[in-house]
Amino acid sequence: MLHFPQNFLWGAATSSYQVEGGNSNSDWWHWEKKNGLVNSGPACRQYELFAQDFELARSQNHNAHRLSLEWARLEPQEGEFSEQELKHYIEVIDALVSRGMEPVVTLHHFTNPLWLSDSGGWENPAAVKYFLRYCKFVVSALAGRVRFWITINEPLVYIYHSYILGVWPPQKKSVLSAMRAEGHLVAAHIKAYRLIHKLYNDLGLDKPNVSIAKNVQAFVACRDNFLDRLGTILRDYWYNIRIIDKLTRHNAIDFIGLNYYSRQLVEVKNWGIANLIMDTCSLNHHPLKKNSLGWDIYPEGLYNLLICFKKYNLPVIITENGICTDDDGLRWEYIYGHLKQLHQAIGNGVKVAGYLYWSLLDNFEWDKGFTPRFGLNEVNYDTYARTPRDSARKYAEVCKTGAI
Ligand code: GCO
Is 325 touching ligand 1 by the criterion CB < 6 Å? Predict the structure, then answer.
């Protein structure tokens, strides 16, 4: 048996918009209606069914759970905060704590209040002060219950889809807009980090643990040549390292939240900067098993990235790792394979403090809709019944024993 450290956080992750349903004050909700491509609708109805879902997680021996709060519910109009929605989220967090699960709370997971989007979204410098005002409202109320905060989920994934690919709202394709929005998101995290620590200090509470959830990819040179190796090094720095470096320089990160899924083969087809940053392999000559979205299954990539992040000497929590697949045997193979790599990294000195599988439930996968199924627990979108998969039962045993 491979044993994990004592007090290791074992659980799963979700995000409010992907599971709650009915988020009609959100920019995503209006974007879906305008585009007609996907419809999150009632999602998994977790807004009403949260206690049932947390009971399911507890029954599967989870001792932690990552979720997000929907800013659009808490501040439906600019400057008007909803005490009713705050009361709802206090009940949600209490439902976790009362079941012995450590809440890991995300404040921004891709979605924005419609009023923020209408005022320029994250390109607007005022977004930073709006975000801080929202953080102060909700963190002050939850501080006594929550020890782990994720300010921004995957800033680069949000920027890339929303401002480069243009497949998420505000559906822009502008490098300038992307750079502006990224700068404001990173500034918002740094200021929110200081605010959250001040709030806890002023309340006489133990220091909180504050970070972002950083999506990382394992970049692998497609061919053993200079261009592909150069592209791999540049992309690794630009995508995986650059923002964490900045947050450590600003002393604005207590642990590293890592979201890891897959690798990207780098085949640079030309000398242009776009080629170095964007070209991917089209040769498919290193075939690996894939998830249902075509992402390579590459557990070694998690080990390599963890060894790379060891230099920061910070605790690491895997805030997302998961697979969309209709083959639950492959789901368990994916989980087991990544936990083995995690264990090996811990054995080589990486301070990993937790693993949160994405996701507790099948849920709304953004512009891919409900087709990709990541859940440990299947969701029937007609009856909203949850059915544990075999992988959930196997993962429950790991959560119980702390070993694989
Ligand atoms: C992300 C998001 C999740 C996704 C998950 C699967 O990492 O993109 O945090 O919202 O659903 O990663 O793509």
Answer: no
Q: What CA–CA distance (Å, rounded) separates 152 from 160?
A: 14
Neighbours of 29 (CB within 10 A): 20
For residues 383 and 233, what is the distance between their CA atoms, to the nearest angstrom? 48
> Which tokens hold the place of 272?
């242009």
**Contact, 351 vs 314, CB < 8 A?**
yes
Radius of gyration of the chain (CA): 20
Q: Is 320 a catalytic residue?
A: yes
**Does the structure show a pLDDT above 80 at 286?**
no
Cα(224) to ligand 1 centroid in Å equals: 31
Residue type, 75: E
**Other C-beta atoms lying within 10 Å of the C-beta of residue 136:** 16
Check: CB of residue 301 under 8 Å from CB of residue 218: yes
Task: Identify the CATH homologous superfamily for domain 9-401.
Answer: Glycosidases (3.20.20.80)
Measured in Å, residue 362 CA sits from the centre of ligand 1 at 12
Ligand 1 in reach of 217 Cβ (< 6 A) = no
Q: Give the tens place of pLDDT for each residue, 34-89.
A: 999 999 999 999 999 999 999 999 999 999 999 999 999 999 999 999 999 999 99
Could you tell me the residue ranges of all domains in the chain?
9-401
* Span 355-387, pLDDT tens digits: 999 999 999 999 999 999 999 999 999 999 999
Q: Residue 166 class from Cβ within 10 Å (0-12 exposed, 13-18 middle, 19+ buried)?
A: middle
Q: Where are the beta strands (DSSP E) in 131-207?
A: 148-153
The closest of 201, 240, 212 to 104, measured between CA atoms, is 212
Distance, CA of 28 to CA of 328 (rounded, Å): 30
Tell me the whole-structure pTM to 2 decimals: 0.97
